[in-house]
What we know:
The complex is a heterotrimer of chains A (about 220), B (about 130) and C (about 400).
Chain A lengths: L1 E9 L6 E10 L4 E5 L6 H9 L6 E6 L2 E2 L5 H10 L1 E4 L11 H5 L8 H17 L15 H13 L5 E5 L7 H16 L3 E6 L10 E4 L4
Parallel strand pairs in A: 3-8, 3-9, 6-7, 7-8
Antiparallel strand pairs in A: 1-2, 1-4, 4-5
Chain B lengths: L1 H24 L10 H25 L3 H25 L9 H34 L1
Chain C lengths: L2 H13 L1 H38 L4 E5 L3 H10 L7 E2 L1 H7 L4 E13 L7 E7 L12 H5 L6 E4 L9 E4 L2 E8 L10 E5 L3 H10 L6 H5 L2 E2 L1 E6 L5 H12 L3 E4 L1 H44 L1 H9 L4 H31 L3 H8 L8 H32 L2 H8 L1
Parallel strand pairs in C: 4-8, 5-7
Antiparallel strand pairs in C: 1-10, 1-11, 2-9, 3-4, 3-10, 5-8, 6-7
Helix pairs in contact in C: 1-11, 2-9, 2-11, 2-13, 9-13, 10-14, 11-13
Amino acid sequence: MLCAEGISKSYKSNRRKILDSLEISIDEGEFIAVMGESGSGKSTLLAVLAGILDPDEGQVLFEGKDLYKLSDEELSDIHKRKIGYVPQSNFFLKNYTILENIVEPFLAGSSEERIAYEEKAKRHLENLGIGDLADRFPHELSGGELKRAAIARALLTEPVLLIADEPTTGLDSGTGRIILEYLSEYVVSGHAVLVATHDDHVKEYAGRVFDIQKS
Amino acid sequence: MKNRIIFAAVFVLLGLLVILAPTVLFPVCESEMKMACFFTKKAEIGVGLVIVALGVIYFFLKNKDIRLGISIAQFLNAALVLALPLKLTGLCKMSDMACRVKTYPALIVLSVLLAVSAAADIFLLARSENEK
Amino acid sequence: MSLRRTKNTIKDIQRHAFLNACLLATVVILSVMLFSVTVISVSLKKGMGNMRKRLGADIMLVPKGEREKAENMLLEGSRSNFYFEGEVYEKVQSIDGISDSTSQCFLKSLSADCCSSEVQIVFFDPASDFVVGPWIETEYKQKLSGDAVIVGSDIVSEDGMIKLFGQEYAIASQMARTGTALDRSVYFSTDAKAELLRNAEEKGSFLTEEQKKGDILSSIFINVDGSHTAEQIIDSAHKTIGDIFDVVYPKKLHESLSGSLGKITGVVNAISLSLGILLVAILLIINSIIMKGRKSEIALLRVLGHRKKDLIRKLLSEMGLISLAGALGGSLLGALIVIPFGRYIGKSLDMPYLGPGIASVLVQILLIVGIVILIVFLASVFFIIHTTNTEPYLALRKEE
């Protein structure tokens, strides 16, 4: 499904190479944990694979197409329907409710589509144990609740690949387990999940561990 | 609550300006003879006092229906502020008299501002009633 | 923009209420300023243009010692009485080098209505006139009868009549507003002079000895033909009628007034330009703050699958709606202040002032709205494009 070769990336602020000629591939049905210490480049790698950070070198082939050579329309469509991304920090639109945040890409579309996605969103929120928070605003939720809402948002269109950056960091073990179980159920139906973490519990759910420092 | 304070303040301020416009700020023609603009000035003082009084009452009212009624009244008061010099009590005939050059334009501006404020409040109150 | 899209755009604007309110306030102030300055400028120029036409003679002869009164009357519209003997005009007409000449006679009057101030009565000869005529157009073509008058736009009459010296006169026509002293004058044909003065005396009005004579005139307007100079005409006039007159050069009066107007508009334009630059700078600052604050929001929307061009369109729609509302509101506010107070502005500046008609105001509003929307667009487009082009991950990372 996704194949990345020769990925190198450094930030302008420090000229140190964060990623140096990395290779990784992801197939359907895989749950991969990307592990490494803080500052090893896990988040950077996930961002490159998600198509939201252009690498200095290398290519990322998703379903045979180079993500960074696609037009903005094609890449946007992939982000909308095929790759779900959960950022490390809980970014939500402040003045939208949780439900509105999740279905935001479809708010301006037809009302039939919007209503259908709202139902889906509510199901995800129920499954993640926060169904009653749909009409609240982000500032009213705890960190764990926001993380679960972010996962519901990323899963809305049933993307073939879900990329989650540190989905359990800073959460209590109970909440972390709910999230990891939900993600591992997701891979069963032919989807793939890629998680960056330094939480060892994730290894219990992941089918493969990618140690970024050894790579 | 915020709207109640804002609109009450606006009504009181505009009412005070309606009183001050023909008397102090843009006074009507000075003359020993009581000309039309003298009576307009007196009438505007009266209307201005009513506008101020309604504004003060508005501030203390929590009931939205009564506040809606007061705003309708203020809208009509705005029409009266304009009708007085235009038709009812009138102004001096010559276009270069003080009442026509200064006072009348000031009353036009105040009338429009009061009408727009009242209309805005009517709109907001009616909308919040519909949302119920 | 469809209604639903407009509603969504309004909701998005409300979600960033404070900064958008600052933007709106800036746009309103800019629009008020642009509208007011434009209208005042145009009105002053129109008034001046009319003044120039009104001062259409090369030379104006007035009785000796009355030059200042005559200049004030022409420029400010102050009411005056001064007189020559009537035969002076016939003698002046015989001077070589005059292409056109006409006489006028002025009389101050109290209108019967105690709420009115004085009007200036002007007796003119429709046959030879070239000064008042241009203002009367088709009405001029009718011969003014003894009991019909033409009045300036500021003369108010509810029944089509005007009472002067106890006698009612039918208003044959009312002139369009000129923004000059013409607006406060009443025009009679010279034929009516004798009867009017007789009525005035019968009703107990005080007439001077000169006025009682009847055969009087106040000024002689002269146009010089191409082969002579004004000085030659004046010399000839001295020789013909003696040293009984002063000379007013109406066109030079206009030039000095134009000079004053030039200074006033120069100052107004300089202040407006400075304010305009300041406001545009404020717009740029507010836009940069807004876009900086929305960087992570835009990045998140890109991650969720929004296209760049859709985001640019969304942001430009918000800017467009704010600038439209601000420009419209500001223009209307400007109109509310400048148009009713037009006469006051003219009087304060001591300048002829002719305010715009409704059609002109509407055109002005449309123009200002267009200009302001363009300014806001230019002040925001760089920031919008820069923000949407930022790599989403970098924007989200900065926020962390």
